[in-house]
């Protein structure tokens, strides 16, 4: 139930953003001033009468705290956005900052307090640095800034996610309130996960990169539970660390596990200052692979070396079958950036804010 909305005659004003010094900057790359807003939007034309329901998105909404400014698109503190379509043609919108520990600590202390995508808190002295390392190895210093995706589980719960497992947050789809952490009840451990699980009415399926024993766990969680169960494991063929798995894909019977040459870098994680590729390093000599895991047995059906690739998002996957209905190939579609990691730096706020009417994104 949505309450406290503006009347049909008096649509609410659009929420303010921080002003841009350069009018050519896109408003999307500036912080939203209001932590919470809701109101009716003005409709030009007519919304179809059959369109009824709520559309939810989340993503970065605040790129500065006090005098501190983030440097990358992926750093921004998470904001939940809704658009609610009513049968009578009214359109209600709203947003609210997700109340993560990282956001609340930054707001209280007026400074960065957790490790984000491209930046880490700077220790004041050597003892503070040692303490920061201890927090890193325990996972305590990692962000829970759930700004990467929002999913409706088969049991109806709505969760927002990021690439740290602690950044799994339950939200209310009507009020946009942050209800608390989504606590996994299994003993699988680890600190990181794929930002984009595959969620259906019947299952939640994701990948858990293993930094200590390089590889990936393929796990499944049933609706109504918080327990992930292991389907299978893929050991890295390239090493010395698993490749980044922002997303992956699957077919009816198989999970496709990517192993990119863009690999997690322990050396970069130990540094307080960001490196060129932040917490990653490009290791083309370690090659690139795709692994195909059977969902039923957990066994590796195929492990194939492929040309070097740089991928954020997989799009689709399907099986090609013979005349008897047996799978003879798995086709995976993705948005591949020509094995070029410059797309990561292109998404820095400095670059995005310097947009001058040209397409600055590298080809994919």
TrEMBL record:
<keyword id="KW-0479">Metal-binding</keyword>
<feature type="compositionally biased region" description="Polar residues">
    <location>
        <begin position="1"/>
        <end position="12"/>
    </location>
</feature>
<dbReference type="GO" id="GO:0016121">
    <property type="term" value="P:carotene catabolic process"/>
</dbReference>
<keyword id="KW-0223">Dioxygenase</keyword>
<comment type="similarity">
    <text>Belongs to the carotenoid oxygenase family.</text>
</comment>
<feature type="binding site">
    <location>
        <position position="246"/>
    </location>
    <ligand>
        <name>Fe cation</name>
    </ligand>
</feature>
<dbReference type="Pfam" id="PF03055">
    <property type="entry name" value="RPE65"/>
</dbReference>
<dbReference type="InterPro" id="IPR004294">
    <property type="entry name" value="Carotenoid_Oase"/>
</dbReference>
<feature type="binding site">
    <location>
        <position position="313"/>
    </location>
    <ligand>
        <name>Fe cation</name>
    </ligand>
</feature>
<protein>
    <recommendedName>
        <fullName>Carotenoid cleavage dioxygenase 8</fullName>
    </recommendedName>
</protein>
<dbReference type="GO" id="GO:0009507">
    <property type="term" value="C:chloroplast"/>
</dbReference>
<feature type="binding site">
    <location>
        <position position="196"/>
    </location>
    <ligand>
        <name>Fe cation</name>
    </ligand>
</feature>
<keyword id="KW-0408">Iron</keyword>
<keyword id="KW-0560">Oxidoreductase</keyword>
<dbReference type="GO" id="GO:0046872">
    <property type="term" value="F:metal ion binding"/>
</dbReference>
<dbReference type="GO" id="GO:0010436">
    <property type="term" value="F:carotenoid dioxygenase activity"/>
</dbReference>
<feature type="region of interest" description="Disordered">
    <location>
        <begin position="1"/>
        <end position="22"/>
    </location>
</feature>
